[in-house]
Design goal:
Blueprint: H1 2-31, H2 36-114, E1 117-126, E2 134-137, E3 150-152, E4 157-164, E5 169-173, E6 180-185, E7 191-196, E8 203-204, E9 219-222, E10 234-242, E11 251-256, E12 265-270
Antiparallel strand pairs: 1-2, 1-12, 2-5, 3-4, 3-12, 4-5, 6-7, 6-9, 7-8, 8-11, 9-10, 10-11
Length: 296
């Protein structure tokens, strides 16, 4: 028991001595600058210990910041990829719209030059039968479309309406084997008939005598004598001529001027004598009352 009390007394005295020494040193450091060098030397010795103590906390903080920055970068990267995809899609649409505007401008310029009344129609579908060249457009009898009406694109004669429905119409191409059109050679005015060959890039002129004045490259235009196509529209250009002895007629092929396999917009043509009937005019009921015997 005495040893225990002796140890406690020794510890208390040591603690007291330490506290007193610390107070003395603090007062001396506060009032005098003699301990600055000692404090600087001790700080150099203690710094590695402080660094090692702070290292886990700094490492944890740096790792957290790195993970947060990486997550933010991944989020921004995904957002930028989505934005780039949207912009690329818009660019594709703008490119398609630009090409469509160019085509429409060409159609309108063509109509203004020829002075006809026209209505723009768009293709809805194409007949996949290789022996029947027919397309469906998005304009019908409600817009004044009628059977036999002429259709052109920005480059030349395309075809004519064979079936006008209320909301859509069927147009037969000039290359269909059952189609024929009255044409004339622009160079000399020689008239003939052009018929469809069944090939999308060729029409035939089967009724030209062997001695006809026709040359490769001659431009064929509508003659206006078939009461369907107004005169002066380009139909095609002569690509080949074959004159065989013993045959009464030459074998003449021409390439259509219209882009039959590419055009998506058509001009439906009315003659100057027939304005476009876009709206139906209903008869108004009579407003005058019948006169009664007393009013006469």
């Amino acid at each position: 028991m005495k040893l225990i009390f002796a140890k406690r007394a020794s510890l208390n005295s040591r603690l007291l001595i330490g506290v007193v020494a610390a107070l003395v040193l603090m007062i001396a450091d506060q009032r005098h600058e003699h301990l600055k060098n000692l404090r600087s030397a001790l700080s150099v010795i203690v710094y590695p210990i402080q660094y090692l103590v702070d290292l886990p906390f700094k490492t944890q903080s740096a790792a957290y910041e790195s993970l947060s920055e990486r997550a933010q970068l991944l989020k921004e990267n995904r957002a930028l990829k989505q934005e780039a995809l949207i912009l690329k899609n818009r660019l594709l649409k703008f490119s398609a719209l630009e090409k469509e505007n160019i085509r429409l401008r060409g159609l309108l310029e063509n109509s203004f030059k020829l002075g006809e009344q026209v209505l723009i129609a768009e293709l809805l579908s194409v007949n996949l039968n290789p022996y029947k060249h027919v397309v469906v457009i998005n304009k019908g009898s409600r817009f004044g479309i009628f059977n036999g009406q002429a259709a052109i694109d920005a480059y030349g004669v395309y075809g004519q309406v064979i079936q006008a429905n209320p909301l859509s119409s069927e147009v037969i191409l000039i290359t269909d084997p059952s189609h024929a059109i009255s044409v004339e050679i622009n160079r000399n005015g020689l008239r003939t008939i052009a018929v469809g060959s069944g090939l999308i890039d060729r029409i035939d002129l089967p009724f030209l005598p062997n001695n006809s004045d026709i040359q490769i490259g001659d431009l064929l235009v509508t003659s206006g004598l078939d009461n369907t196509f107004p005169a002066g529209y380009p139909v095609g250009s002569v690509t080949s001529i074959s004159r065989e002895p013993g045959n009464s007629f030459a074998i003449v092929h021409a390439q259509p001027a219209a882009y039959l396999d590419k055009s998506r917009e058509l001009l439906m043509i009315w003659s100057n004598k027939e304005p476009i009937p876009l709206f139906e005019v209903k008869e108004q009921p009579a407003t005058n009352k019948e006169a009664t015997p007393g009013e006469q």
